[in-house]
Amino acid sequence: MPINFHDEKNRGSYANRNADEAWKNLARTLVDPAGLRVADVGCGGGIYTRAWAELGAQEVIGVDSSPVMVEAAREQCSALANVSFVVGDAAATGLNDASVDLVFERALIHHLTDLESAMAEACRLLKRSGHLIIQDRTPADVALPGSAEHIRGYFFERFPRLLAIEQGRRWPGEQVQSAMAAAGFTDVTEMVLWEPRRVYPSFSELAEELRNRTGRSILHELTDEELEDLIDFVGKRLDHDKVIAEGDRWTIWTGRRG
Predict the structure, then answer these.
(1) Backbone phi, then psi, for 250, in 5-degree steps?
(2) The domain at 8-257 falls in which architecture?
(3) Are the C-beta atoms of residues 256 and 36 closer than 8 Å to each other?
(4) CA distances from 242 to 203, 206, 248 (A)
(5) Terminal-residue alpha carbon distance, the chain
(6) What single string gives the DSSP state of each residue in 57-109?
(7) How far is 189 from 133, CA to CA, in rounded Å?
(8) Pairing mode, strands 126-136 and 244-257
(9) What string of pLDDT tens digits covers the 258 residues of the chain?
């Protein structure tokens, strides 16, 4: 069954990782965060909320609909005085009008059935000429075959029903761009990013992460028995004598409030 983001047992699933330097380097090319006020909408466990602060943002506010995720994020970012968190919805954050310079939404929109309302809310939050950055996967992104660099592809090779679920909840790029434009965003762009996820010195470490379903909501669709089957399937396709450097392909959309 789908992941329950409100369940205490999942509180650390999206918190115990650092944003990769490749992601940070790209973020700097999209917008100079120095001195900006940033809203990280759909912040989960605060991984990228923290990253924006590390990139030099003056203030970062994480917003998530799950009190459990917000509490986990607060714990992870407790040492950062310029980072705070609130419980709120993507279409109703509770933040003030024209109160931020940048709205960031990573791995959020595939959880939404109403893209237009979320885009309108992002526009409401932004100051004039403020920026929206969306990072998510398209149906094409998730259809890539499995490899040592793209472990996720093996999930769908072994259990094709997962691919149907995954593609069914992913927005095509043209729909995202259309929703952004309809909300009033200009200079809308789309690009692809291969983001390093994690380096595993051994397959056993990857297997343990898969077993815990860490940061992989699609694996909550599998029973425990199916998950063990998947781990065995992946293990037979990887060289256990090599370090595994996993990455994910994402699509990034940017726009500016007129």
Answers:
(1) -125, 160
(2) 3-Layer(aba) Sandwich (3.40)
(3) no
(4) 9, 12, 19
(5) 41
(6) -SEEEEEES-HHHHHHHHHHTTT-TTEEEEE-BTTB--PPTT-EEEEEEES-G
(7) 10
(8) antiparallel
(9) 554 455 455 445 555 688 999 999 999 999 999 999 999 999 999 999 999 999 999 999 999 999 999 999 999 999 999 999 999 999 999 999 999 999 999 999 999 999 999 999 999 999 999 999 999 999 999 999 999 999 999 999 999 999 999 999 999 999 999 999 999 999 999 999 999 999 999 999 999 999 999 889 999 999 999 999 999 999 999 999 999 999 999 999 999 998
Spatial CB neighbours of 135, under 8 Å, sequence gap ≥ 6: 104, 105, 106, 107, 193, 250, 251, 252
Residue found under tokens 């259990």: 159
Map out the domains of the chain as residue ranges. 8-257
Residues paired with residue 194 on neighbouring β-strands, in sequence order: 249
